[in-house]
């Protein structure tokens, strides 16, 4: 057997975190593959495994894997020592026998050997639960990929479960002409150092456009999750020496320069099968120089550093939670597989019925839709519509004893549908339940007994219908009818789908995750055994170029642009639209991306926004938030896992996020939605009639501007979801759209407007719409996506257009009342009778104007949505007309499109009417505000006139006081001067011994002291710093005095009703400091803002009264 070389030195027990296994090309030397051939820039010529060992010891253990066993590796042809050298002959025979043995091996056999020896080695070392990294070169990478994709009888792969990463050096993921064509066999062996030439079986596995390789890529992408992939591709040609012939028929050796593995084949990802965590790095080396990093010292250091950091930062707990979350998503995300088939009597037109399976996404990707449906028919999958909605019911319902005997139910195999005449004549029903039939004329009085031929032992009491057996409800043979003349009833059979009765399948994935689209399409292509089926559907112009991305990279800016494409068959005679490629198959293929209106609760919106915020704060999904991992919401888990992936999940968007995708944050606009404000619990406390009369606009605006309350979670918000639809061939249609998740105690409200439920109810029932082909169903899906919320909801809070119309009516009524109040306020003859506060206050009208602007903005966004839908529907009608004429498809579907087109036209007209009403109300409110502003100007002029009159009266009073001052000031001055006891007025002016001062001395003191007091007073009056300094000095000297008086029990302050001098002085100081700033701010506000200007004059009468009182006081 092949073996794994032991590590250079075995680390201590418990110190190893990761195993690293280096895998060379098939048959290549496991040592020489990794040896560096050059010594540049001081780098050592050491093998890669030595370098990794030194860098990672003791955290990692490095192994070298050899595809050959030890005896196979030791086989050599001994040189001949003579013509009869038996040792030479024997060695040659053993060498040839060994070559013949491995010549039958293909990639699968080499992978089995690899998986077996690595598993045995890990079990022997008791390291089977240790994480492992693989470093592969050339064909060895395909062997590792095949081994990781295999499953045992229990569906497990211990190696893949613990794989952390794989490095591919020049691996032919999509085949190689050099490795597959026979003329390159010898030169490939020489370059890679293979023990033997590549066998024909092995070369066949590396053919270009090999379906097995493409299938392996898909299975590998599904099998491994969270595995870091490094793909190093070669870019330099290799000198290949081949044997060629010339024109003369002679043979000669020719050197050809080619890349052994093309750069496109060296990448694991492709547009048809992308891989999430692959990092592609180009090496300027040949095929052999890739793992040796020839002349690529910088990349060599980068790779070693990356592996070192990856191993040292590895956390087993985080990885376990990461894988558990992914397993939860893949196992609990149910994919709907609906099979439409025809039932009916031969020679008569049949009806379309449905059989439904609900496999998990993981099961669907591994098994395919056909096997999932076969499991459903066999009874393995018992999930039905009730189980999806939270209720479980038996596959076959039992009647109570009081009811008459149930008819016989027989479930036959799929093959019996074609041979049994009874089955062809039986009544058919879409569900596996007993059909209702008319009661017989003679009804038994005895209770019939129940006979069950086959019971599922795994679930007692539940019937497990098998395709190969019959299950019948019959009456007991002992209970014979007393009426011997009655004929026995014929057994009523339920016809199961078969290959001859199948029309098409509808496959639905419940989330818009771009990473799942290639996986689902590839699975269907494999199920159809045609890998070219989806290649054109995932072309850049059909898929990736339709994705919108903004510079700020917010999740709400991520969506698929609305479009409709029809891919005509390759044999189509006329190809009108050259921009749309032809189909890769002989069937018409169809693609549609359509936005549609939906709803969500405000609670869900807040939770989703919080999850997105937390997830964007960290670059990777690990570590996982505990409330996300333990929560019930699959949407939150999906967002956490794939929000920042290369092909991320497309989150549900609010109406404003749809209308303004370039905004970084729309949380304020989302909380200001009209539907949210009109469906909040406080808005529903009053009946609609009373609500319209008592609605307070200013409170709603204040509530919208503040943080929402916890009780507002039940309110509704408008959302814009996406419908992704592909018709892969004439028998398969695929849809992706996000559901509205169920909430606790929502009373089944989550079903309102649910597109999937609407479609299922329409196609499943006695009066179901008949969809004869995928094109009929595609039109029906578009029909329900457009109408689900606008036409099919019964809850009054979800009737969107009615909510808008009611709110516009309320605001229009408010506008009428405001006009009446404004008119009535002008009927008073006296100015004092006018209600100035009500006349000037315009806050209520301004709030109403802002509400109308919000309504107009949201209606304009809905109008944009309807226009995009009309564009898509019109394009579909155009395509369907051509399909009806040229291909005979979609005859029923075009009628659905006509209906939805008329529906959109009618709602567009209704929307235009609401927009006109909102705009008319806006215009009226603007006129009202303008008139109130003009009236405010009049009031301001009146106030200015009164202030002028008051100023005139004050001027006259000042003039009178001035006159009296002018008259009496000289008299009082001279009277004071002559009253001074001066030496000159004493009668003895020459007496120098007199105690009286002279006039010169008196006037000197008076002038100096007066000048000092005046200067200090002016400085305190006009200098802010001087005022503050004086106030601080006063506090310093006055505080000890007041404290002393307080200890003595004496309160020097005045009673509370009279302010003290200190407080009065303090308030005067503060007022004096701020008065100039306040006046300047008021003046500026009056000039710049009408609202501030009118608000500053709301209390003008009170200001005038205060001013008059102050003048009287003076």
From TrEMBL:
<dbReference type="GO" id="GO:0016020">
    <property type="term" value="C:membrane"/>
</dbReference>
<dbReference type="InterPro" id="IPR050829">
    <property type="entry name" value="CorA_MIT"/>
</dbReference>
<dbReference type="GO" id="GO:0015095">
    <property type="term" value="F:magnesium ion transmembrane transporter activity"/>
</dbReference>
<feature type="transmembrane region" description="Helical">
    <location>
        <begin position="1002"/>
        <end position="1022"/>
    </location>
</feature>
<keyword id="KW-1133">Transmembrane helix</keyword>
<dbReference type="GO" id="GO:0015099">
    <property type="term" value="F:nickel cation transmembrane transporter activity"/>
</dbReference>
<dbReference type="GO" id="GO:0015087">
    <property type="term" value="F:cobalt ion transmembrane transporter activity"/>
</dbReference>
<dbReference type="InterPro" id="IPR002523">
    <property type="entry name" value="MgTranspt_CorA/ZnTranspt_ZntB"/>
</dbReference>
<feature type="compositionally biased region" description="Basic and acidic residues">
    <location>
        <begin position="377"/>
        <end position="387"/>
    </location>
</feature>
<keyword id="KW-0812">Transmembrane</keyword>
<feature type="region of interest" description="Disordered">
    <location>
        <begin position="377"/>
        <end position="443"/>
    </location>
</feature>
<feature type="transmembrane region" description="Helical">
    <location>
        <begin position="958"/>
        <end position="982"/>
    </location>
</feature>
<protein>
    <recommendedName>
        <fullName>DUF676 domain-containing protein</fullName>
    </recommendedName>
</protein>
<dbReference type="InterPro" id="IPR045863">
    <property type="entry name" value="CorA_TM1_TM2"/>
</dbReference>
<dbReference type="Pfam" id="PF01544">
    <property type="entry name" value="CorA"/>
</dbReference>
<dbReference type="InterPro" id="IPR029058">
    <property type="entry name" value="AB_hydrolase_fold"/>
</dbReference>
<keyword id="KW-0472">Membrane</keyword>
């Amino acid at each position: 057997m092949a073996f794994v070389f032991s590590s250079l030195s075995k680390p201590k027990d418990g110190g190893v975190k990761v195993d690293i296994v280096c895998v060379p090309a098939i048959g290549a030397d496991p040592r020489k593959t990794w040896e560096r051939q050059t010594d540049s820039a001081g780098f050592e010529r050491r093998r890669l495994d030595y370098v990794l060992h030194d860098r990672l010891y003791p955290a990692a253990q490095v192994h070298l894997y050899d595809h050959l066993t030890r005896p196979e590796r030791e086989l050599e042809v001994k040189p001949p020592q003579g013509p009869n050298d038996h040792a030479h002959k024997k060695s040659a025979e053993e060498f040839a026998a060994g070559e013949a043995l491995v010549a039958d091996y293909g990639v699968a056999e080499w992978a089995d050997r690899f998986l077996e020896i690595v598993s045995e080695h890990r079990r022997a070392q008791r390291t089977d639960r240790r994480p492992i990294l693989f470093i592969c070169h050339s064909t060895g990478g395909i062997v590792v990929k095949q081994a990781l994709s295999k499953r045992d009888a229990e569906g497990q792969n211990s190696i893949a479960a613990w794989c952390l990463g794989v490095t591919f050096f020049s691996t032919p993921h999509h085949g190689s002409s050099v490795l597959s064509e026979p003329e390159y066999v010898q030169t490939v062996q020489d370059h890679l150092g293979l023990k033997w030439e590549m066998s024909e079986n092995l070369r066949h596995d590396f053919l270009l456009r090999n379906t097995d390789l493409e299938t392996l890529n898909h299975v590998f992408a599904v099998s491994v999750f969270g595995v870091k992939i490094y793909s190093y591709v070669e870019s330099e040609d290799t000198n290949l020496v081949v044997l060629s012939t010339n024109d003369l028929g002679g043979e000669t050796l020719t050197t050809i320069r080619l890349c052994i593995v093309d750069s496109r084949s060296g990448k694991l990802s492709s547009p048809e099968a992308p891989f999430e965590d692959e990092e592609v790095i180009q090496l300027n080396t040949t095929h052999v120089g890739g793992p040796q990093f020839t002349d690529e010292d910088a990349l060599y250091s980068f790779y070693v550093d990356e592996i070192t950091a990856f191993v040292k930062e590895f956390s087993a707990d985080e990885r376990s939670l990461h894988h558990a979350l992914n397993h939860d998503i893949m196992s609990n995300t149910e994919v709907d597989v609906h099979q439409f088939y025809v039932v009916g009597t031969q020679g008569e037109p049949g009806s379309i019925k449905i059989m439904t399976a609900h496999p998990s996404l993981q099961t669907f990707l591994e098994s395919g839709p056909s096997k999932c449906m076969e499991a459903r028919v066999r009874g393995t999958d018992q999930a039905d519509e009730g189980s999806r909605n939270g209720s479980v019911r038996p596959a076959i319902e039992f009647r109570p004893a009081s009811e008459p005997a149930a008819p016989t139910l027989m479930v036959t195999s799929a093959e019996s549908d074609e041979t049994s005449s009874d089955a062809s004549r039986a009544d058919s029903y879409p569900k596996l339940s007993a059909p209702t039939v008319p009661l017989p004329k003679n009804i038994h009085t005895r209770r019939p007994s129940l006979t069950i031929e086959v019971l599922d032992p795994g679930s007692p009491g539940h019937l497990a219908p098998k395709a190969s057996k019959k299950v019948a409800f019959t009456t007991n043979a002992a209970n014979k009818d007393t009426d011997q003349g009655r004929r026995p009833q014929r057994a009523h059979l339920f016809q199961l789908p078969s290959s001859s009765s199948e029309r098409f399948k509808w496959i639905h994935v419940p989330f818009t995750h771009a990473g799942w689209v290639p996986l689902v399409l590839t699975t269907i292509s494999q199920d159809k055994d045609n890998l070219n089926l989806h290649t054109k559907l995932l072309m850049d112009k059909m898929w990736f170029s339709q994705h919108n991305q903004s510079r700020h990279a917010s999740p709400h800016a991520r969506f698929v642009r609305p479009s409709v494409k029809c891919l005509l068959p390759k044999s189509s005679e006329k190809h009108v639209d050259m921009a749309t490629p032809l189909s890769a198959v002989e069937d018409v293929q169809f693609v549609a991306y359509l936005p549609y209106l939906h709803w969500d609760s405000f609670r869900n919106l807040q939770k989703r926004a919080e999850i997105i915020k937390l997830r964007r704060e960290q670059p990777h999904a690990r570590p996982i938030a505990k409330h996300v991992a333990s929560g019930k919401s699959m949407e939150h888990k999906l967002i956490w896992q794939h929000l920042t992936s290369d092909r991320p999940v497309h989150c549900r968007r609010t109406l404003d996020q749809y209308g303004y995708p370039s905004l970084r944050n729309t949380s304020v606009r989302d909380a200001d939605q009209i539907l949210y404000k009109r469906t909040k619990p406080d808005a529903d406390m009053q009946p609609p009639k009373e609500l319209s009369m008592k609605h307070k606009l200013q409170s709603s605006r204040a509530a919208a501007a503040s943080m929402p309350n916890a009780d507002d979670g039940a309110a509704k918000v408008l959302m814009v979801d996406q419908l992704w639809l592909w018709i892969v061939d004439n028998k398969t249609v695929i849809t992706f759209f996000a559901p509205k998740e169920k909430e606790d105690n929502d009373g089944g409200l989550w079903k309102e407007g649910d597109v999937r439920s609407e479609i299922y109810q329409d196609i499943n029932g006695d009066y179901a719409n008949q969809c004869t082909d995928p094109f009929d169903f595609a039109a029906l899906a578009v029909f329900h996506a457009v109408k689900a919320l606008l036409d099919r909801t019964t809850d009054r809070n979800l009737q969107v257009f009615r909510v808008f119309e009611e709110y516009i009516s309320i605001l229009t009524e408010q506008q009428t009342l405001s006009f009446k109040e404004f008119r009535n306020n002008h009927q008073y003859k006296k100015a004092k009778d006018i209600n100035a506060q009500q006349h000037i206050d315009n806050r209520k009208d301004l709030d109403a104007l802002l509400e109308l602007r919000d309504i107009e903005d949201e209606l304009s966004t809905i109008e944009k949505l309807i226009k995009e839908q009309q564009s898509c529907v019109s394009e579909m009608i155009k395509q369907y007309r051509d399909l009806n004429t040229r291909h005979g498809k979609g005859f029923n579907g075009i009628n659905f499109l006509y209906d939805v087109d008329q529906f959109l036209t009618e709602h567009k007209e209704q929307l235009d009417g609401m927009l006109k009403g909102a705009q008319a109300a806006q215009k009226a409110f603007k006129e009202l505000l303008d008139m109130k502003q003009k009236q405010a100007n009049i009031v301001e002029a009146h106030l200015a006139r009164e202030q002028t009159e008051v100023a005139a009266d004050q001027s006259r009073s000042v003039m009178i006081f001035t006159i009296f001052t002018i008259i009496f000031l000289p008299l009082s001055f001279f009277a004071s001067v002559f009253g001074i006891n001066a030496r000159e007025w004493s009668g003895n002016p020459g007496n120098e011994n007199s105690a009286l001062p002279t006039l010169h001395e008196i006037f000197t003191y008076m002038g100096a002291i007066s000048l000092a007091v005046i200067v200090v007073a002016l400085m305190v009056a006009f200098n802010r710093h001087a005022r503050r300094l004086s106030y601080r000095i006063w506090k310093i000297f006055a505080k000890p005095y007041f404290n002393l008086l307080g200890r003595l029990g004496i309160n020097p302050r005045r009673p509370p009703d009279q302010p003290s001098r200190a407080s009065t002085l303090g308030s005067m100081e503060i007022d004096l400091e701020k008065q100039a700033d306040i006046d300047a701010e008021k003046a500026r506000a009056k000039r710049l803002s009408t609202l501030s200007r009118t608000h500053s004059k709301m209390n003008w009468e009170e200001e005038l009264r205060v001013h008059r009182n102050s003048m009287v006081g003076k």
